[in-house]
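Below is how a single chain appears once it has passed through the pipeline. First comes the sequence as given, then the structure the pipeline wrote out for it. We keep one example in the README because the format questions we get most often are answered faster by looking than by reading.
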Amino acid sequence: MTEEHPPPNDSGVPPESPPLGQTLPPPPAGTSPLDPSGPDSDSSSSGFLSNRKWVIAGAAVGAVVILALVGALVSNGSSSKAGPTTTTTEATTTTVPRTTTSMVTTTTLPPPILTKAMCTETPPDGMVTKDGNSFTGQCLHFWAHVFQFDAATGPCTLMANYSNSWHKYNFEYGNAILMIDSNQSFGAAVTSTQGKVQLPSNSCAQLGPISQGDNIEVWGIAQGTSSYSTKAGGTNQYLKIGLVDAYKR
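Resulting structure:
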């Protein structure tokens, strides 16, 4: 049985909905459902795309904010869990200049030992008697005649008359007297015109071959004048000579 539907009214207003339990009539001929690809679909699609852009932009901003919050939380967490702070102290090296003290060793050489090669001067005749002290400190060369060399003088001292040349006979020697002394110990420094010097060791041995009455050649250093008393009650002045060397002639 076919149900009849009232025709649509001319005003374009759809008829009232049928009561419950009734079905709607089929659409009028010549009409069809909306085509998704039709004109209306273009406008709805562009609106959707526009809305999707805003949604994507908002989502990106939200993601950035979330990442920032997460980074801050992680940073706070890591800082709260960080261990004790280690402070590195840089050592400062101070260079102190070193003072070097040089030890200077001074070696004192002993005075030179006199030799007859150092005694080359022979005073003129009469000068020893006139001013014997003027020769003090000089190493001199003499010829002499031994007039006393006995127990009174001892083995290392003798008395002789001086001359500035060699003579065969004792009366040819003058009246100047020399006391040849070899008693001074070796190493004792004596004053000379050449500075401090030493007499040779054991110079007394040089007098061993000599006897009283001999004519001798003598080298020695002048050490000033002195005098002695004679048996007759007088005095004799002499020039003391520190013996360097002596030979019998």
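The first strand starts at residue 139 and ends at 148.

See the next section for the split statistics.
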